[in-house]
Structure formats: C-alpha cells, structure tokens
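ugh ok fine here u go
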Amino acid sequence: MQPVAQQAAMAPLHFEKENIMPLTLTVSEGVLPPGSEKATFARLCEAMLKWHGLSGNAVMTPNVVGSIHVLPEERTFSGMHETKVALVEWKVPSFAFADRAIQVGYIEEATSIVHEASGGRQPKQQIWVNVVHAVDGAWGIGGEALSNEQLGARVHSSS
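structure:
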C-alpha cells in the first residue's frame, strides 16, 4: 500500500478555476441573531459564486468551504477598542476576485448581506470584507503545493 501523501499526489484533481475557496466569517456575539449565522454564510457563498459566473455549478458549489467564528465582543476590536465587528474573508488563488467589477460588486453585496442579516443593527462601517490571495506555489491540495501554472494546467485538463 502506498503512503497517503503518494496516493494524494497521484490522484487526479477535479476542480474548476475558482474551486476550493475557503470563507471565514467572523462576527462578534450579537451582530447576527442567534441561529442566523449559517444562512448568512450560505448567502455570502452564493454571492461569491454569482459574481464569478458559477451560480448553481455542480462542481463548484460543494467545494466552497469555510468556517464561522462568533466571538465575545470583548475579543473583537476596531481602532484598538472593543467593538462589535463583522469580518468576511476569502482565501483564494490569485486568479480569483482578480476582476475589479467582481471585487466592487461582491464587497458591496457581502456588506449588504451582513447588514441585512443583522436586522440593520450592524453599521456598514463595521463590516469588513477582504480577499487574501495565496502566494503562487503555496496553494495546497491533497498535500501537494501547486503553482498558478499547475492549477491552470489541471483546470484545462479537467475541462
């Protein structure tokens, strides 16, 4: 039997260009009504898919991953003061969110999603959205570090 790392490296990867994009939604307690975090997370993911032209994509949708963090207000800060905050952060390959229209449109929509989910109580000025691009060569899938070129080659070979 081959070691797991060898098996993973040999296994073909099946993903679309913007596949496997982790979202981290971090909010202070009280920003979102209890129990609404999952629906807000889903809406943020659906908006990302929409802005990348991938709504309803059977391959993409199950590969949008992430986590929700609800922190006590005394553990969230703005201007070095305890503040109720909402943070929406995507970690993606550098070719995702590369188009300015996608950046502007998604950030506006994501801010509105969180604001609406808060019942209008969370000021838009205390909702931050950012996108972190992985360093070329540091996008790991199945234990293998892939460059943008390698990701692109696998995308084209799976089309």
